[in-house]
Structures are given as structure tokens and as C-alpha cells.
Amino acid sequence: MNEFDRPYTGRSTRRGGAGRFFLFLIVLLVALLATNPGKEDFVDYAIKNISEESGGKLGAGIANMIGKPVLNSVTERENYILFSIFKLPVLDGSNNYLGIFKLIFIKL
Questions:
Q1: How would you class 32 by CB atoms within 10 Å of its CB: exposed for 0-12, middle for 13-18, buried for 19 or more?
Q2: SS3 sequence, the chain?
Q3: Largest CA distance in the chain
Q4: Tell me: the pLDDT tens digits for 32-63?
Q5: Is residue 80's pLDDT more than 80?
């Protein structure tokens, strides 16, 4: 009996396609929820970038000693449960960053 001789049942031969997608989606949403970065995570990211740009241990020490309290006080966080938007005021307005997974910050 070949595939054309079997009666049509109306079901797809692929199994679990939609179920796998929804399972992946749920796992992704839970991961985003559990790893939503806080203000401290963003400040650590910003200090690390400042330290790398300044180069040397002296620049890193100064950025950590002076920059961390300043950034902590001026940074604003908008929490959207799955991700956060961070606003860092600068002279010509503000820089906005999208934060996800505690490690990824994208300048908007």
C-alpha cells in the first residue's frame, strides 16, 4: 500500500510542530523574565565599557571609584518585566539602552 492508497485523515504527518514552538516560546519568555537586568547590571556594564575605553588600570580604578556612584544616581530604569530600558542623561539629551538577559545592552 503506498501513500496514495491510504484514506485521508485530515491530519498532518508532522507531529509536535506547534507544540515545540509554544514550548520554545514559553522557555524564552521565562528566561527573559528571570534574567531581566536591573540598574546595577547596567551600571556594571557602563563602568566596564568606560574602563575599556580609558585603557590601563588607573582609568579603570577611577571609573569604578567615581563613575559607579554617579551612574547609579543618574541612570533611570523603565522595567517592562521581560526587558528594561535604561536612560542615561547626557548633555545633548539622553542615551537609551535596551537591556535583556542581564548581559546584553543595545543602544537605541
A1: middle
A2: CCCCCCCCCCCCCCCCHHHHHHHHHHHHHHHHHHCCCCHHHHHHHHHHHHHHHHCHHHHHHHHHHHHHHHHHHHCEEEECCCCEEEEEEECCEEEEEEEECCCEEEEC
A3: 79
A4: 999 999 999 999 998 888 777 766 666 667 77
A5: yes
pTM: 0.72
Which residue, 82, 35, 83, 44, is CA-closest to 97?
83
Cell numbers linked to 103? 548581559
| Structure-derived torsion over alpha carbons of residues 81, 72, 90, 97, reported in degrees to the nearest 10 | -30
| pLDDT, tens only, 90-102 | 877 778 999 999 9
Distance CA 30, CA 68 (A): 30
